[in-house]
Amino acid sequence: MKTGTLFLIPSTLGETDPDKVLPAYNLQLMKQLDVFIVEELRTARRFLRKCGYMKDFDQVVFHLLNEHTPDHELLSFLEQIKAGIDTGLLSEAGCPAVADPGSGVVKLAQQMNIRVVPLSGPTSIILSLMASGFNGQQFTFHGYLPVKEHDRVRKIKELEKDLFKTGQTHIFIEAPYRNKHMIESILSSCSNEVMLCIASNLSLADESVKSASVAEWKKINPDPGKKPTVFLLSR
Question: What single DSSP character describes residue 146?
Fold first, then answer.
């Protein structure tokens, strides 16, 4: 029996027309699938409909995947693929398995010798790096920094020390409602010559990407509000 394929399907980063950020191949492929691994059922269905998916959802299988999904359920998702059923892994926003719970499924699929096919689509990490003007040869993505202010400031100072030593770009994200706290921590703890890029609502109509020194940012007093934002530090 032929083994199925796990397709990693990027989604939009917000209320963007899928035609603007997703290849036509992705949209066509999705229409052929009957099984999806998703983080949240309602948003997954809404995204599929926006992409032109016309099948009756009562006839479509949705496997729910989040931080509470036990490992034995992940195995059952993939056993269906081993049985020949192509399956799509959808992210809530951007690319699956990147700062996303889907990474566990992909790891297990690789261990089971299941074919994994990543599809092209928007990822805020790469988009922000592209637009920042920072070092794109050497960079590190840190995900979320510590929530507690003391720990967060300590981590930022570690990143600052490293960027002056290595020249690499450091990239991290924050929950939108804590954006202001993150910016305050960066501006209060980094040297004035450190370069900071603040990239918000990437790929959306009101996206904003600006790179400036900490000294310049202090004059601007930036506040992206509660928009999804990526932060980059460089020298």
Answer: P
